[in-house]
Amino acid sequence: DAMVIQNPRYQVTQFGKPVTLSCSQTLNHNVMYWYQQKSSQAPKLLFHYYDKDFNNEADTPDNFQSRRPNTSFCFLDIRSPGLGDAAMYLCATSRDLLAGGHNEQFFGPGTRLTVL
Amino acid sequence: EDQVTQSPEALRLQEGESSSLNCSYTVSGLRGLFWYRQDPGKGPEFLFTLYSAGEEKEKERLKATLTKKESFLHITAPKPEDSATYLCAVLITGGGNKLTFGTGTQLKVEL
After folding, report:
1. Environment class of residue A92 by beta-carbon count within 10 Å: exposed (0-12), middle (13-18) or buried (19+)?
2. Is-contact B2 B27, C-beta < 8 A?
């Protein structure tokens, strides 16, 4: 089945220790997204790629970086995690939503990040 | 400022007790409205997309409707397995591929 895969599902890191979360997709979608979701809150968009074009949200901290080496893979790097970065990180993919039609975002299962 | 508001924040129903969840939006221009279901500890699961006022979509016990100001997710004769958080999100004119999410309605269906 075509899908969005995130690894690891659970990640524990220490305060200030860099961490990388990964996302892969078999849907061949050209848009990939990273969201942060804290308990009982809406997913918050951090950034997204339209093909290789990187789009950063204005309020995304510099501590968060992303890489997309090819269509299938996208990485979220947190350079110096703080306690406030503990959250669920969601990866999603879509075709161009502006094209209309059935271009919904498909989400992966998420990575739960704990910062000690 | 573009806003998406969902109500109620939480809803408890008895099995078989039909109800509706609301998503109201104030946006500069709506290109589409999306409904998702999210189970605890999992990513959101796509349910419906609505593009224009008057449009309706159905799937099993769920029916989504759209007006110029709000969307409703109607749940008919719910079962305990319908318990989840339901999120709505809007795609806004000039917002590129970005979805703006509401904070969700946490639904619990009891036997």
Report:
1. buried
2. yes
Scanning A41-100 for CB atoms below 8 A from B yields 41-43, 45, 48, 50, 55, 88, 90, 92, 94, 96-98, 100
Percent of chain A with pLDDT over 70: 96
Decide if B5 contacts B101 (C-beta within 8 A): no
Q: Is A50 buried (19+), middle (13-18) or exposed (0-12) by CB count in 10 A?
A: middle
User: How many contacts (CB atoms, under 8 Å) link A and B?
Assistant: 63
Q: How many CB atoms lie within 10 A of CB A27?
A: 15
* Whole-number Å distance between alpha carbons of A97 and A95: 6
A59 has a pLDDT exceeding 70:
yes
